[in-house]
Amino acid sequence: MSTTMPKPAEITRKWYVIDAAGKPMGRTAAIAANLLRGKNKVTFAPHVDCGDHVIIINSDKAILTGNKLDQKFYRHHSGWVGGLKEVNYRTFMKAHSDRAMTLAVKGMIPDTTIGRAAMTRLRVYKGDAHKHQSQKPEAYNG
Length: 142
Description:
The protein has helices at 25-37, 68-71, 89-106, 113-119; strands spanning 15-19, 53-57, 73-77, 84-88, 122-124, 138-139. By secondary structure, it is of the alpha/beta class. It has a 4-stranded parallel beta sheet with strand order 5-2-1-6, covered by helices on one side. A two-stranded antiparallel sheet has the order 3-4. Helix 1 runs parallel beside helix 3 (89-106). It has 4 helices and 6 strands. The longest helix has 18 residues, at 89-106. It is globular.
């Protein structure tokens, strides 16, 4: 029995839609990260980018468990002295829930060239409408 090594030209990419309504943000992000990496495939290899395209809809209806809405902060720095800005997740989710979901998925993807390529296949939308119907995405229930 031999081990199959996938080649980048032989990889077929599917499109999946994940509905985040009423689900914890971290669980949804973990599912999306596994699909983006291709870890659900039998032919997964860590040195080859073999992941699928992922569309996350209803990111504004994703929930944060516990007291994360008030105790968790989104922080970014401008690079200047005193340039640290922080926003708690209650206001961050109201204004930019799609960016919050993208950051959650990005934290679960490796910081390599394969990880950066995987993040280009992620699309996050606040509502339930998306513009990728022509790719015939299938709903992921897992």
